[in-house]
Amino acid sequence: MMTVQPAHRISEVKEYYFSKKLREIDEMRQQGVQVINLGIGNPDRPPHTKVLEELNKTSSEKGNHGYQSYIGIPELRNAFSQWYLQYFNIELDANKEILPLMGSKEGIMHISMAFLNKGDQVLIPNPGYPTYASVSNLVEAEMITYDLEEELNWQPDFNKLEKLDLSKVKLMWVNYPNMPTGANATLELFNKLVTFGKKHNILICNDNPYSFILNDQPLSIFRVEGAKDICIELNSLSKSHNMAGWRVGMVAANEVFIQYILRVKSNMDSGMFKPLQLAAAHALNLDKTWYDEINSEYYQRRELAWKIMDMLNCTYHKEQSGMFIWAKIPDSVESAEQLSDFILNNAHVFITPGSIFGTQGERYIRISLCSTKEVLQQSIEKIKQLPIKTKSTEQA
């Protein structure tokens, strides 16, 4: 048999960590081990009942099963526009400044393909969402990581950035509210990012899917005057509306940037299923009580996740946004991966090691809030059995 070699571009792209870990967990379950997965931010609750009803109704209507426009139906684009106006106080032209996506993760690839040539440099946060790095590798761009540090509330150190050779940097990925750290955005931070982007002609891309989770003040980078000149923002219904598997997101930018991205997107898909778009539009029109309801559940789950972190002698900030708890492991623990594997192998509970998000996450772990209170309580009972000295036992 002849051996066909893969493209060079995938030589630096590894299998996604969670893909490998889920396979390991599945193998344990096949052997009869009951594993609790607290690792992935996969909302476990359904969308609003009215959204499900809309999908069911429109899926039965004739004419809704053909190809759709690459730019999304007007109902969805208008809904995104009204959503940004109502909750972010941002005006976006539904016809020129919004492009619906099959999930915002798709947008990371589209943006990279639209703007980056081989050898262009990209600023990648450390710690940060691994897809920023993997997509940069796929388009053969050169990655320049910039450290986020707890002492600066996980914000970029602009003094250090200014000391870099930025002449070949074309794009910078930022993500606020931040994943994995839960650090929230501020208008001051966004002002600095826009100023930095304009000064060095660097496209600032803010990935913004966690705006509504445990966060009372959603903020868009477009709140900064002139941000549309140099910024792009991604958003998604995955977390905010419990629609992760629906794959509905958006990219917002000025008309020129949108057209560049559309050139890529229109060659990669043939439009989104119309009933999905209509149901998504319905979701975007829900009032604030929807967000209050989902956050009420996350508040209760967070209390239990804090208990787990306390049992593990980890330290954390209680002001975090998003659907995760990010915590620093004690000095006595060798590494986050060692602690994660110890808990998985002995308590059969999986907690994400922060090292998968970059070297700046090596002393941190992350717990997802996408498990029920009952499952989180079960995790507490399992971890209680481990030979770990807690603060309370040390004091006794």
- Overall structural class, as computed from helix and strand content, comes to alpha/beta
Based on the coordinates given, report the CATH architecture of the largest domain.
3-Layer(aba) Sandwich
Number of strands: 14
Element-level helix/strand string = HEHHEHEHEEHEHEEEHHHEEHEEEHH
Q: What share of residues are in beta strands?
A: 5-15%
Tertiary shape: globular
Count structural domains: 2
Regions with pLDDT < 50 over 5+ consecutive residues? 390-396
Topology:
Elements: H1 17-30, E1 36-37, H2 49-59, H3 74-88, E2 98-101, H4 104-115, E3 121-126, H5 130-138, E4 142-149, E5 155-156, H6 158-162, E6 169-174, H7 187-200, E7 203-207, E8 231-236, E9 249-252, H8 255-265, H9 274-284, H10 288-311, E10 315-316, E11 324-328, H11 336-347, E12 349-350, E13 352-353, E14 364-368, H12 373-384, H13 391-395
Parallel strand pairs: 1-12, 3-4, 3-6, 6-7, 7-8
Antiparallel strand pairs: 2-9, 4-5, 8-9, 10-11, 11-14, 13-14
EC number: 2.6.1.-
Enzyme class: transferase
GO molecular function, one term: transaminase activity
In short:
The protein is built from 13 helices and 14 strands.
Detailed description of the structure:
The protein folds into 2 domains: 8-46 and 289-386, Alpha-Beta Complex (Aspartate Aminotransferase, domain 1); 49-288, Aspartate Aminotransferase, domain 2. It is 39% helix and 15% strand. The radius of gyration is 22 Å and the shape is globular. The chain has helices at 17-30, 49-59, 74-88, 104-115, 130-138, 158-162, 187-200, 255-265, 274-284, 288-311, 336-347, 373-384, 391-395, and strands at 36-37, 98-101, 121-126, 142-149, 155-156, 169-174, 203-207, 231-236, 249-252, 315-316, 324-328, 349-350, 352-353, 364-368. The protein starts with 16 loop residues before the first helix and ends with a helix. Mean pLDDT is 93; it is low at 390-396. Helix 3 packs parallel to helix 9 and helix 10 (288-311) runs parallel beside helix 12 (373-384). The chain is α/β, with parallel strands linked by helices. Strands 2-9-8-7-6-3-4-5 form an 8-stranded mixed sheet, with helices on both faces. The protein has a 4-stranded antiparallel sheet with strand order 10-11-14-13, with helices on one face. Its EC number is 2.6.1.-. This is Aminotransferase. Its cofactor is pyridoxal 5'-phosphate. One of its GO terms (molecular function) is transaminase activity. Keywords: Aminotransferase, Transferase.
